[in-house]
Prior knowledge:
Layout: H1 3-23, E1 52-55, E2 60-62, E3 70-76, H2 81-95, E4 103-110, H3 114-124, E5 131-133, H4 137-142, E6 149-153, E7 159-163, H5 169-185
Parallel strand pairs: 3-4, 4-5
Antiparallel strand pairs: 1-2, 1-5, 3-6, 6-7
Amino acid sequence: MMPTLRLRLFSRWLRPLFAAVLLGTAGCIAEEPEDFEATALVRTGNTAPDFTVELLDGGTATLSALRGEVVLLTFFSTWCPTCREQMALMQQRVVDRFAGRPFRFLPVSRAEEREAVAAFCRETGIAFPVGLDPDGTVYGLYATRYVPRNLIIDPAGRVLLAAGEFTGEESVAQLARRIAGALDGMQ
């Protein structure tokens, strides 16, 4: 195998896994869901810590700039099977459903390089904006471990829901119901 091909394979598949293990923040919620609450630094009722992330498309997103909208903040990792399943459902079940409403879906990749996130988005057909948190700093404001981690944030910046359990389509449907309720409450 040519050295550059080996390096590309390492960068694409193994580097994110090594980074997660070395950071000590590895953990897909499917592994040990009973520890989820103990790892949360932000809970329902808290004000969501502000941050700015670079987006995969080169732009930026600042949480405080989204005040006045309902925000679904989702931390994910490309190597996590439950994250992959959840992200595959988000376009149709959430993004399209709330298009034209004061809502923003802000997925943020936890502790992964741009190349890994870009490859994941290409492979899964993700077209919505995705935030990058290559060193895990933003994630570290919210939790110490486990993905996916979903937070619904109200227009004033308060966390309405902090959740990590993922049971497939029903979990996404529950998120959508909570988002709809928050949007309806704005009227």
